[in-house]
Amino acid sequence: YVAFLKLFLETAEKHFMVGHRVHYYVFTDQLAAVPRVTLGTGRQLSVLEVRAYKRWQDVSMRRMEMISDFCERRFLSEVDYLVCVDVDMEFRDHVGVEILTPLFGTLHPGFYGSSREAFTYERRPQSQAYIPKDEGDFYYLGAFFGGSV
Fold it and tell me: Residues annotated in the binding site for UDP-N-acetyl-alpha-D-galactosamine, as ranges?
């Protein structure tokens, strides 16, 4: 996914929290492959080394664990808000401080306006992520979320 990082950072510099201090944290197992991108005033980038996994599914499943670990070690003392964005996303328009609330998520565009019956929630009762068929009003995208640290 490092291949997406240059475009991600370039579009973030144009549209994400412009005029505000931003600290980009890049989680990767490919430190040498991180491209150099010129950042604006008050903006910085830190590359955080994480364990390599063979399957993208394993990376996805461990994401919250990695975020939590770095929260305790770094983020709590360095930032007020954490915005988690998948690196294969591209910013196309303004994203500003108006999104910064204690907890926020993004509605999944593929399910926007759909009924709850269409949502691909976990439906196995034995799962800790189980959501009954008569519950759940929204389906969120895992690629853009955050909140206060």
Answer: 86-88
CATH number for 78: 3.90.550.10
Binding residues for Mn(2+), by number, are 86, 88
Q: Which residue has the tokens 């005033």?
A: 41
- Structural domain total, the chain: 1
Contacts of 105 (CB under 8 A, 6+ apart): 140, 141, 144, 145
| Secondary structure E strands in the chain | 22-28, 43-49, 81-85, 103-107, 140-148
pTM here?
Answer: 0.90
Task: Return binding residues.
Answer: 86-88, 108, 120
Q: What average pLDDT does range 73-101 have in this prediction?
A: 97
Task: Provide the residue range defining the domain that includes 10.
Answer: 2-105+140-148
* 78 occurs within a structural domain: yes
**Residue 81 domain flag:** yes
Instruction: With respect to residue 127, please indicate whether it lies within any of the assigned structural domains.
Output: no
Q: Tell whether 135 is covered by a domain.
A: no
Tens of pLDDT, residues 23-68: 999 999 999 999 999 999 999 999 999 999 999 888 888 999 999 9
